[in-house]
Write a structure and sequence with these properties.
This protein has 315 residues and is α+β, with helices and mostly antiparallel strands. The chain has helices spanning 22-44, 49-62, 106-116, 124-133, 141-144, 147-156, 169-177, 236-242, 244-255, 259-273; strands at residues 5-13, 82-88, 94-100, 121-123, 183-188, 194-200, 221-223, 229-234, 278-283, 289-293, 297-304, 309-314. The chain has a single domain (5-314), classed as 4-Layer Sandwich (Glutamine Phosphoribosylpyrophosphate, subunit 1, domain 1), CATH 3.60.20.30. The chain contains ten helices and twelve strands. Strand 2 (82-88) and strand 3 (94-100) form a beta hairpin. It binds aspartic acid. Aspartic acid (ASP) is lined by residues 11, 67, 180-182, 200, 202-203, 212-214, 220, 233-234, 236.
């Protein structure tokens, strides 16, 4: 049997052990482990890479600890606007949504766009109306609220017009540590088909209408059976400028690099050169996986049928 693999991330950034309590750390590790196990079970039963990716992401969206679905960050206006994308490496079909509100699982909506819309990318009200038409589950604003994200937003919501007082360590820490938290998954199924998906609330205090890299095919999410499936997390603007996920695919296709080497070039050279903090996870159609980041930490996990099983947070 060929190798089947799932890899997930729950965001990257300045995640330091000294800032964690054992309880919070355990909660994150459990959240990652559950998502890994549920999507691994899909693959083990012969399910598709797309379904494995979706299963992991629904669970992570429902987990308030991660910045996607429930627990998404607040925009400058104090609401949640979420982005998500999914891509199937078999035929390059893809679905993405941006700036959606009140959608319980944006990754479900992105999948619906991929399968049933004749389009690839829907945004704002059009995406929300499509969700209603397709019977996608909606939730009231309160569902998405988390005290932790609210406090984080409150601390910086007025900061737009000021340069930050860097002597205020608490504020600086809030800004540094907690701005990422997106969730992503990539999978290679028993048939050697690969898929990628990413879902996010974006960045705290983002301007309303701002769209990050996560839902942009080629920037934060990409999958092609010929090369790789990639999901990114980090400072989205730089990932968009780098067309980061597709660049990994190009390095593999045109330069013959391995998955690991291609991701290393993009994350540790190209993104670093433009201060693009973050990381990415990837698989290829042989079931190889790589999880690479240039930040202090990245919530992540990987599991395959050859005995690889890991969940980790720090470098
Ligand atoms: N890349 C996401 C964005 O810029 C943020 C993240 O990865 O946490 O919207």
């Amino acid at each position: 049997m060929s190798t089947f693999t799932i890899a997930i991330h729950g965001g990257a950034g300045t995640i330091l052990k000294e800032d964690m309590t054992p309880e919070i750390e355990e909660a994150y590790m459990n959240g990652l482990q559950q998502a890994l196990d549920i999507s691994y079970a899909v693959l083990k039963e012969g399910g598709t890479a797309v379904n494995a990716v979706k299963a992991a992401l629904v669970l992570l969206e429902d987990n308030v600890l991660f910045n996607a679905g429930k627990g998404s960050v607040f925009t400058k206006k104090g609401v949640q606007e979420m982005d998500a994308a999914i891509m199937n490496g078999i035929d390059l079909s893809a679905g993405a949504v941006a700036g959606v509100r009140n959608v319980r699982n944006p990754i479900e909506l992105a999948t619906e766009v991929m399968r049933n819309s004749n389009h690839v990318f829907l945004s704002g009200k059009g995406a929300n109306d499509f969700a209603i038409k397709q019977g996608i589950k909606l939730e009231p604003d309160e569902y998405f609220f988390s005290q932790f994200r609210y406090d984080q937003w409150k601390a910086i919501r007025d900061s737009d017009n000021y340069s930050l007082d860097h002597t205020n360590h608490h504020l600086e820490e809030l800004l540094r540590d907690k701005k990422f938290g997106t969730v992503g998954a990539v999978a290679c199924d028993v048939d050697g088909n690969i898929a990628a998906g990413t879902s996010t609330g974006g960045m705290t205090n983002k301007k309303y209408g701002r769209i990050g890299d996560s839902p942009m095919i080629g920037a934060g999410t990409y999958a092609n059976n010929k090369t790789c499936a990639i999901s990114c997390t980090g400072h989205g603007e730089m990932f968009i400028m780098s067309v980061a996920a597709y660049d990994v695919s190009c390095l593999m296709e045109y330069k013959g690099l391995s998955l690991q080497d291609a991701m290393d070039v993009v994350v540790n050279k190209k993104l670093v050169a433009i201060q693009g903090e973050g990381g990415m996870i990837g698989v290829d159609a042989e079931g190889n996986a790589a999880l690479i980041f240039n930040s202090a930490g990245m919530y992540r996990g990987v599991k395959n049928n050859r005995g690889l099983a890991e969940v980790a947070i720090y470098k």
